[in-house]
Amino acid sequence: MQQLAKNIAAARHKCGLTQGQLADLVGVSHSAVSKWEMGATCPDIALLAPIARALHTTPDALLNFRPQLDSGQVQSLVAACSALLVREGLCPAWDQAKALVHQYPADSLLLLKLGSFAQQLVLCCQDEKQAKQVLQWGCELLERCREIAQGETAQAAIVALTAYYSMLERTDEAVYLLEQQPPNSFDPRRQLAPLYARQGKDDRAAELAQQDLYMCAFMAVTDLMLLANIAQKGQDARRQQFLLQRAIDVAQVLGLQVGLGQNLFLALAGCLATQGEVEPALDALERYADLAARWPDVGEIGTYPWFDRIKMTAQPMGEALLKPHLCQMVEEQTQLDPLRRHPRYAAVLQRLRALGEQSGENIP
């Protein structure tokens, strides 16, 4: 009752109405409205709709009723935002996302997915200031999600939030957030695969084992690339090259080049170029373009016997947003300066520009 009273009073103040004006609009006495807002009485249920109309809100909002969406509904809503972003650009898509947050402010899964959607919005920002505003909005959603969510949704929000903090150079907050989490060096659920196998549930055991292998491979490549970046900061080009090549080896052996390999080859091209190894650097740059052309076709991954139980889904919206930036990513790499005047370098840029122009053709 008290929450309803507060909501009526807050909505009335927001509309700039007096208690008497609201009473006239609804057809009740001034004292009735006063009693509603004090929590002494509740309005008759038949009056909720007229009150909501007068206050430019909804009965659900007055009653604090927040419907929860299922995962399929959340996926459809976020996909619609992505499609709008591709068709009409940043502002319409961002406005639609904000409207969804207003409509479902306590839906933790929607907050998580829209918070993650901020990464797509950033790609369409005109300048750094706008990109920062979008990331801060994404942080707000993820922070709210973390407060109300539990289990995997809360953990996913923490992972995304630390990435956003890092992009916003809020490193101290990212470190603090992660340090507050309990150490979890071993996931008990990893014991499920061998247990399922002992029960004769081989299909389920194989699926879990493959998911675990995929995540381990992804982390191995990611960590090797991080170590290579650290070597680069220490101006140890040979060490950087060795680590990048080992990361490429892991990706190649396990068939994960599409999606992971292109960034590795771009980094390797820059590393080789700074050492004066022009031809090998151009080879790596051309390999980057080869893999970029195949992305996001991840169907090949499922042909390997160690990943054939995992469902890989391509992201056409991500293709339409990211491929136009492939050429820019190369042009901004100062390490590639020694290659700029080479015909093979120019051919790579031309190929990447063509990919960017073609990327949106199949998007509805």
Q: Could you explain how this protein is built, in words?
A:
The protein contains 19 helices and no strands. Helix 6 (71-88) packs parallel to helix 8. The chain has three domains: 2-62, Orthogonal Bundle (434 Repressor (Amino-terminal Domain)); 71-179, Serine Threonine Protein Phosphatase 5, Tetratricopeptide repeat; 192-358, Serine Threonine Protein Phosphatase 5, Tetratricopeptide repeat. It has helices at residues 2-15, 19-26, 30-38, 48-54, 59-62, 71-88, 90-103, 108-122, 128-148, 151-167, 171-179, 192-198, 202-233, 237-253, 257-274, 278-294, 316-322, 326-331, 343-358. The protein is mainly alpha-helical and 364 residues long. The mean pLDDT is 86. InterPro entries: Cro/C1-type_HTH (IPR001387), Lambda_DNA-bd_dom_sf (IPR010982). One of its GO terms (molecular function) is DNA binding. Keywords: DNA-binding.
Q: What attributes characterize this protein structure?
A:
Serine Threonine Protein Phosphatase 5, Tetratricopeptide repeat, 364 residues, mainly alpha, 3 domains, 19 helices, single chain, 434 Repressor (Amino-terminal Domain)
How are the secondary structure elements laid out?
Layout: H1 2-15, H2 19-26, H3 30-38, H4 48-54, H5 59-62, H6 71-88, H7 90-103, H8 108-122, H9 128-148, H10 151-167, H11 171-179, H12 192-198, H13 202-233, H14 237-253, H15 257-274, H16 278-294, H17 316-322, H18 326-331, H19 343-358
Helix pairs in contact: 2-3, 6-7, 6-8, 7-8, 8-9, 8-10, 9-10, 10-11, 12-13, 13-14, 14-15, 15-16, 16-19
Domain HTH cro/C1-type: 8-62
Pfam families: HTH_3 (PF01381)
Protein name: Transcriptional repressor DicA
